[in-house]
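Why do we care about 3D structure at all? Because function follows from shape, and shape follows, mostly, from sequence. That is the central idea of this module. The next example makes it concrete: a single protein chain, its amino acid sequence, and then its structure expressed as tokens.
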Amino acid sequence: MEKLAHNYHALRGLTPYGTKFMGLVKADGYGHGAVPMAKKLEELGADYLGVASLDEAIELREAGLKLPILILGCTPALYAGELVQYNITQACYDLEYAKALSAQVQKGGGELCIHIQCDTGMTRLGFLCQEDCQDRSAREILEAVKLPGLKAEGIFTHFAQSDTSEEATMVQFDRFLAIIEKVKALGYTFSLRHCANSAATLLYPATYLDMVRPGIVLYGHLPDVSMDPGLCDLQPVLELKSRVGTVRQVPAGAQVSYGGTFTLARDSRLAVLPVGYGDGYRRAFSNQLSVLFDGQKAPILGRVCMDMCMVDVTDIPEVEEGSVAILYGSDGKGEQSVEMAASLPPATISYELLVTITKRIPRVYL
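And the structure:
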């Protein structure tokens, strides 16, 4: 937990005094465990939490979290009553949805806090904010925020290329500022304007506005491997480890695992680890990735199974049943980073490797 605290303070140090901080804990806290991460962020002084769905938000409320929670994804208007009941803020992405939310809230009573979502170039959700759409969208946003039962606290957008293109990001940012000004000219001012995701928090201070929304960087990973690690002193929060189930002597010529994709060229000692793609350890790692034993690399041989994988410890004689293998992380003598694993073909991103670690793997918080 001290690494999460370290990253939080490092990111807070980038923002001016008074800038609010939304910590994203969607996808089970990027695989780290949403409730423990959220509780730590609340303790550290975060102002808001961000999730993707109603179920994620309710999980936090039922765990005792008091911070404001914004659902960034779609929640059917039918569940407006639950949004009000649990005091959850909902992203509102078009006028028809706003009207549906308003109608449902009026049936059940109360008031629903919303943040207006603007599509400035992500092409996913939001009022269209390209230059030829802005006047119409400003009028629709004004109509939405005046609907009964809705309290329009904030307005936000999401950058599509903030980790790779400053030009594209500034186009989106300019569109966002323009729509805010157009709505203001029509008579409505938002108290929270936010657009800075992880990459923008590191790269573009101009985009901080009233609140930043760090996600992957909170957990110690850069949004893109090409980014300069010197932008912020981040520490990976998670290490993935497994203990050796057994060690077997296997003769030369034996084929290892499903499909016989690896044939032993020598008599070998194979350590069996009780972790596989059923735990989120990718099948694509087969015959490509290594694990660490006290700084020494033991390559995965053969295909990663659903529940197990085999690694070659012939040259690491001290490995025995119960020895600890580091799958992602560092032991001070060597490192097996999530980014390194993600770069193996077919390449993916650190986000995917983290969020696909399944519930079968227990989380231990230190």
